Amino acid sequence: MIALAKPVEHVPAGNLATLRRMAADCRACPLWRQATQIVFGRGPAHAAAMLIGEQPGAQEDLAGEPFVGPAGQLLDRALAEAGLDRSTLYLTNTVKHFKYELRGKVRLHKRANATEQAACRHWLAAELARVQPRLVIGLGAMAAQTLFGKDFRIGSERGRWRELGPQARGLATWHPSAVLRTPREARRHEAYAELVTDLRAVAAALAALSDADGATR
C-alpha cells in the first residue's frame, strides 16, 4: 500500500463510486460551505498511473470534474505531446473542494491551508488504496509534499523517481497552473517543456511496466 508522507489514521473503504458518495458528505473542514460540489478523482479503477493535482479551480467546481479548466487544457496538450492517453490515467487532487475569495463577482482561487489539506488527506489515501497505481505523479508543490514530505522542493527535485512502496514509485513535476502563471514568456515555455519531459518519463515507465507484465504471462 502506498503511504503518504504523513500517516492517515483512518482510510475510508469501498469502491470509487462509494468513496465519491461518502466524500460528497464530508464536513471535516469548512471548504464545503463555499464550494458548489465535491471534485473527486476520475479515471479507471485500476489505472497504472495516478496524477495528483493540488485543488479544484472555478471550472472544476462547477463541473465536478478534475482538470477541465485552463490548467486542464494545458495538461491535455502536455499529455498528448508526451504520448499519454488521459483516458487511461486516474486524475485527482490533494484537496477536493474549491477554495476562493470573491473580488466583485469573480471567484479567485485561494490556496488551502495546512489544516484543510490535512482534513482531506484521508480521501487521497483512500483513492491510492483503491486504485493501487504503480506510478504516482504529483503536480505542484502541495501534491509533491503530500507524497514526499514537507522538505521536498519541486524546483530542485522535480522529475526524479522515488520509491513509494514495494511496487510503486512516484515523481513530481510542475502543476499546469504554475506554468500558466509564469510571468516571463521564455521561462513559461521552459517550464512547459520540463512538464512534457517529466510526462515522457512517465510514458516510458508505463511502457516498461507493460513489457514486464507481458513477459511474466
From TrEMBL:
Pfam families: UDG
InterPro entries: UDG_Type-4/5, Ura-DNA_glyco_family4, Uracil-DNA_glycosylase-like, Uracil-DNA_glycosylase-like_sf
Domain annotation Uracil-DNA glycosylase-like: ranges: 40-200
Keyword Ribonucleoprotein set for record: no
Top-rank lineage group of the source organism: Bacteria
GO biological process assignments: DNA repair
Gene3D superfamilies the record matches: Uracil-DNA glycosylase-like domain
Keyword 4Fe-4S annotated: yes
Protein name as catalogued: Type-4 uracil-DNA glycosylase
Family per record: Belongs to the uracil-DNA glycosylase (UDG) superfamily. Type 4 (UDGa) family.
This protein's UniProt keywords: 4Fe-4S, DNA damage, DNA repair, Hydrolase, Iron, Iron-sulfur, Metal-binding
Molecular functions (GO terms): 4 iron, 4 sulfur cluster binding; deaminated base DNA N-glycosylase activity; metal ion binding
